[in-house]
Task: inverse folding
């Protein structure tokens, strides 16, 4: 028999950086700094991401575009790859994202693209912990308690039915 089901999630929204936890604020500021280092000559859309690891270490990344467009990579995946490569075993617990156009920081928050959602979700599954996603902007801050909330009914390693180590 057909059943109608619903998936929803709750997130927090703040009007200023002053309202959020100091650790989250620091992460947003790291993401903002990382956005300045973006290489975005084609889109002029500069994104910075900062990942806080369980140990407290913060690792950042920015988007790096390429003349062969699909060869470019997003800030979120750069930051997570940086964390995984240089701090193996130190689990990401939070990820902040900030973006800027030629007129400065975006007014509204910018969310991770589908590719990045998939990668952030894998980090959660791989490490068995939630990753808080903190979206910063000029006018508001949004905090999502688990990256998995951004990818409902996700495909993940459990679907492969393999024993991975
Ligand atoms: Zn992305």
Result:
């Amino acid at each position: 028999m057909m059943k109608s089901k619903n998936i929803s999630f709750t997130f927090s929204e703040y009007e200023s950086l002053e309202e959020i936890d100091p650790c989250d604020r620091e992460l947003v500021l790291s993401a903002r700094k990382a956005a300045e280092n973006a290489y975005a000559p084609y889109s002029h859309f500069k994104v910075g991401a900062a990942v806080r690891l369980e140990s407290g270490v913060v690792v950042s990344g920015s988007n790096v575009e390429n003349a062969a467009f699909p060869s470019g990579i997003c800030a979120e995946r750069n930051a997570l790859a940086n964390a995984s490569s240089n701090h193996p075993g130190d689990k990401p617990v939070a990820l902040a994202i900030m973006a800027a156009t030629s007129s400065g920081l975006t007014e509204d928050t910018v969310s991770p693209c589908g590719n990045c959602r998939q990668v952030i979700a894998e980090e959660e599954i791989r490490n068995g912990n939630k990753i808080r996603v903190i979206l910063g902007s000029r006018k508001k801050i949004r905090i999502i308690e688990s990256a998995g909330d951004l990818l409902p009914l996700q495909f993940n390693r459990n679907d492969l039915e393999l024993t991975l180590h």
Notes: The longest helix spans residues 22-36. The pocket of zinc ion is lined by residues 74, 76, 112-113, 115-116 (CB under 6 Å). The mean pLDDT is 96. Residues 23 and 93 are 12 Å apart (CA to CA).
